[in-house]
Design a protein that fits this description.
This is NB-ARC domain-containing protein. The chain is α/β, with parallel strands linked by helices and about 1200 residues long. Helix content is about 60%, strand content about 10%. The protein has 46 helices and 21 strands.
Length: about 1200
Amino acid sequence: MDMLNRDRSHVQVEEAAAGFDIEQQPIHYEYIFGFVNTTTHATWQTPGKEESSVIPGAVATITKCFGYKRKWNFRSFTGFTALGVVSSEYEASDINGVLFQVPRSEISNFDRREVGYERVEVPLKFLEFHPRVLGSTSQLNIGSNAKIWLYVPIPSHNMSADENHPLLQSYVDTVLQGCLEWGGEDMAEDFILSTGGWSCFYLNDTPSSRRPWLFRKQYATIDELLSKHSQLTHYGDRRHPEEFASAFNQRMKGTWSIPRRNPNFTGRDHELDEIQSRFSAMEMGGQQIISKVEVAGMGGVGKTQLVAEYCYRHFPRDYGLVVWLNAETIDSLITDFRQLLADLANVDADMDKSSDEIVEEVRTRLFRSNVPWLIVFDNAESSSLEALAHFVPRGAGTKGHVLVTTRHVIADSSGTLILGCLRTNEAIELLRRSAGSHNMDGSSNAAAAEVLSEKLGNLPLALSMAAAYMRRCEVECSEYLHRYTASEKSGQSLLRRGPGATSVASILSLLLPKIEEENQITSEVLHLLSFVGPDVITKSLLRNLISAKKNYDEKISERNTNTLKKQLSVNGPLPACIILGGVALLLMSPRMLPAIDMQRAALIVLASTASSILVLSMGAASEKANTSSNKLTSTSRSFSAFEYEQSDVSWDILKSFSLLSVKEGKGSVHRLLAAAMRSCQSQEESLYYITICIDAMVSCWMFKADSTESWKSSLQLLDHVKTIVAHSQEYNIDSLRLLTVARLSKEAGVLSAMALNAFVEAQVSIEVTLKLLERSTMAKKPECRKAKAEALYELSKIHRYQGRYDDANKCLMESLDLNNADGFFTADTLHELGILEIKRHNLDAATSFLQQSLEIRRGLDDRNSDQVNASATLHQLAAVHVARKPPSLDKAKVLLQEALGLSRQIGQRAATIKQLARVTIRQGFLDQAESYLDQALELYRELYGDNKLHINIAAVRFQQGALALQRSRLTNDKAQSLDNAWLCFHDCLRIRRHVYAYASPLGHSSEDTDPIHLEVSCVLHELGSVGLTQKRFTQSMKMLEAERAILVRLAETAPRSERIYQARLTNLTWLRKCTKEMGDDIKSASLSDERLALKIQFGLKCKSERNDVSCESNVLKEKAKRCRWMARRFALDKSDSETHRKELLKCLAELKDETRTASPGPMAEAASQFLETLLRWLDQSGGGSEILAACDSLRNVLRAHGVQVNDSIHPRNNITKDS
C-alpha cells in the first residue's frame, strides 16, 4: 500500500503524467473506471494476457475530492450484494481501481450490461495514475476533453447486505484476484481498507469450501488479507454456514432459456415502456401480486424479439430470475419445467416424478423466492392459454410477473398488448442495422429503404429476410428494391393470403432465385420443409427429403421415357425436333416446370401423333399420377454421398439466409415463412412437394406397435407425420397414396396412445384416418374397407382407455362388419369385445367372445404367427375367472401359465406376470406374488424406457400396494407393511393423475388436480382405507373426499350406473368411519343421512326408468327373486343337495312359464338368461361358480328394478321378508 502511495503522480490537466499523454485530440474512445474484477461493470481482460482482445487499462485512483466512497451496497436481485459507490460528503475516500479505454461505440453495450447502475462522469482532475504499478498496460493517450465514467448504483438498488443478500466469497475472490494481478498485495490491501459496507452476512458459495485450492486462485493470500483486517471485514464473524450455502445454491436465480439477444433490435421503445407501465399499474395499492401481460399479434410481427429484449433490459435490474418457457403445448411446458428445475435449482428432476409434482415444486420455489421473477410463456396457443394459471404460484407470496406471447387475443383481457408492425423509421433502422451500413449508405439507398419498408408492410420478419438477402449477396438497398419490384411485376410473388404474409412471399420471390442460383437442391428443400412440422428439423430429415425427391423424379422420368418409347413403337418415327424437345421436357425435374405438370409435358411431346396415341398417352399419364405403394412399409435407408453433401449444403445456406434457426442441432422454420412458401407454389407444385414428403416419411417412419425399439425414433418424427397428414387433406392426392397417408395417421395415433398415453391426440389422429378413407375414390374397395376396419379397431381401444365403453363397442361392431372375412382380424376384434365386456362386468358375454376368439386362432393355419395373440386371449379368460364370484383361481392360474408359455412380447409377458401376481395374492402365496410383481415392473421399465409414468406401471404399483396391504393383515410388522402400501398406492395415484390428466375439469386449481376417472377414484379409496388403518385421519379424509368428488362427477354423466352407485355408498361408509374416529359425530350423522338419501334417490331413478319401459310384472320379479335364492342355496349348501335340486327345478319351471307371458323388457330378458345358464350348469360338475355368477347378474337387475335383495341363504331374509 505504501508503494502505491509513493507512486502517485498527482496528474494535472495541463501537464503530462509520467507515461501518460494528455492532449487535445479527436474523441475515438471513452474511459470507464472499474473495480478490477471480471464481473462488475464489464467483462474486463486481466493484464499480462497477450490476446488481441485485451482492453487497455491503467491503475488509477479517484481521489476523495470527487465526493464518493466505495461500498458493498448494490442489491442484486439474483440474491447477493455487489460493489458500488455512494456519494457522501462526509465519508468520501480515495477509490483505487483501473481506468479502461473503451471504443465509444461500445459504451451503449456496457450500459445494457450494467443494469441497475447509472453512469456518472468523473472529471480528469480527480484522477491519479500509478504508471509504475505492475498491471498498467501501454500508454493511454487521454485527451483533456475525454469522457471518463463511473457506474453508480441507482437508488432502488442501493442497499446493504442482509441475510437474504449476503456478500459472496466468489465475488470477493474475483475482485481481490484482480487487485493482486494489477497491483499486487498492496493494491488488494488498499482495496479492503478503502471499501465500506463489509458485513457479517458473508456466504462461502464456492463449489468446495473445504478444499479452496480446487476452485479459488490465490486463496491463501486473499484469506490472509481478509483475516488481517477482520475487524473491518467481519472475516471471523461470518454468519452463513455451509447449510445456508447449500440452500442458497439451490435457489432459482439468473436467466434460463432466453433466446439470444438480437443485436439488430430496433425501436419498440413505446411497447417496452407499455409493458413496464402495465406491470406497474397492476401493482398499485402496495400489494405484491403476480401480474400478467399478454403480447398478442400475428406471426412474424416480432412478439418474441420484443419480449426477449424486455428480459435483457430488466435483468438483473428489476428481476433476479427470468425464465423462458415454450408454451405451444402443455407437454412442452412440462418438459421445460422439468429441465428448469434441474438446471437452475441444482435439483435432479427425476423422471419418476409426475408432471404435477414437477410443476408444484417449481411453483413452490417461486412462491418462496426472495428475488423478483419474470416468467415468459412464449407462443401460447389457444388450447394452452387457459391452463397457464396452473404453472404459476397462487396468492401473493412474492413479486412475480408473467409475460405471454400469443397469436390469439383473449376477449375481455385488459392486460393484452396488441403488437403491430414497426413504424416506418423503426423499419428503416432495422434494415440499416441488419443489412449493414455499407448497403444502406447514400441518399438513394435511404429513399429505397423507405419505399421497401412500405412495400413490406413494416413487418419485422419480412424486413429481416430482405436484410439477410442484402447482406448475404452484397446487394445495396436500391438494387434490392429494383429486383424486388421486378419480381412483383413478373408475377413470381403469388402470396395473397392473410395479413403480413404477402410481404414475406414477396421477399421469397426474390430470395428463392438467389438460393436456386447457389444450389438448386436447397430451394427444393425449403419448399419441402413447408409441409413438415416447424420444429425438430434435423439433417437426417433433410437427407430423407432429398432422397425421396431424387427417387420420385427418377420414377417419373423413367415412366415418361417408357411411354414415349411405347408411342414410337406404335406410330413409327416422329420428327427429330419433337423427339428431342419432348425428351428434354420429360427428363426435366417437375420443379423446373412450375407451370407445366408432367401430364401436360407428355401431351406436348405427342401433340402431332394420331388421336389414338393421344389417348394412350393420357392413359400412361393417369397411371403415373397414381404411382404409389399400397403397403406402408418402412425400411432403413442408406444414404449416398450426394444426399449427405446436399443436406449439409442446404443446412448451411438456409441458416445463412436466416430461413432456418438452429439450436442444439435442431432447426426451426417460422410458421409464417412456411405458410408463405406454400402459398407461393402453384397447385401442381404443392401436390408435387406433398407427395415427396409423404414418400420421405414412409421411408423413415419405422414405427411398429409390437417393436418397442422403434418407438423412440418414431416419436422424433411424430409431429412431422401429423403435419404432413394435415396438409394432405388440402390436396387432391391419388387414392393409393391417400391410403398411405391414412395409415400413417392411424399409426401416429397408435403411437400417441401406446408410448405417450396421449389418448385425446390419438383419437384425433385416428378420426382423421377415417375421414381420409371416406373421401377416397377407393372407399368401397376391399383394401380401403380393411384399412377402415383397422382404424375403427384402434379407435375402439382409445375409447376403452378413456372409459367410453359404448363408443368402443360401436366401433368394434362396425369394424367386424367391414372385415369379417379376415380370420386374424376377426379373432382380434372378438378378443377386444371380450375385454370390453370384462370392463363392463358382463362376464358371461366376455367369456363367449374370448372363447370364440381363441377357437378362431387355434383353427388358423399359421399357428406360430398368432401365438402372441392367443396368449393375450388366454390372459383375458383368466381375468374372467378371477372376477367371478367365487373366483376360480386355480383355473385362472393354469390359463395364465399357458399364456406365459406362448408370449413373446415384453408387454404381454409383463401383463401376464402381473395377473399371476394378482391370483397368487388372493391364494395367499405372497412371496411368490412379490417376485411376480418385481418381474413385471422390470419388464415394463425396459419397455417404456424414460416414460416411467405409464398406465401399466401404475397397475403394477397398485398390485404391489394390494400385496403390502395383505401382508399387513398377516404379519407382526403391520406398520411397515402399511407404510409400503401407502407408498405403492401413492405412486400409482401420481402416475394415473398424469395419464388421465385429459379428464381433469377445465379451470381446476392446484388443489383440484384429480382427473374425473374411475381408476383414479379406486386408488384414492385404497389410500383412504390405508390412512384410516394407520390412524392418519387427516390424510385419510383428504383421499376419501377426493374420491367422493370424482364419484359425484361421474354419477352426473352416468346416473344409472350400478358400479358408481355402489362405489359411492362404500365411499360414504368409509368417510363415516373416519369422522367417527376423529370424534366428529355431527359430520358422521350428516354422512349417514347423505348415504340414505343416495339410496332413496337411486331407487327413485330406477323406479322412473321402470315406468318409462312399462313396469315389469311383480309376479315375475318375485319368482325370479325366489329362484335366485334357491340357486344360491343349491350352489353353497351341500348338506341336502338332492332336495335342493328338486325344489330348484320346480321353481325354475314356474319362472319359465312366467317369462313366456311376461311383457318384453330388461327384467324378462334377465330372467330368461338366468334360466338358460342354470339349466346348462345345474348338472355339470364344477358348475357352482357359473351358477353364482348368474345369480350376481340377476341380483343387479332386480336391484335396478327396485327389488331389495341380499346374498344370505337364510329363507327369512329372502322369501318371507325383504331386507
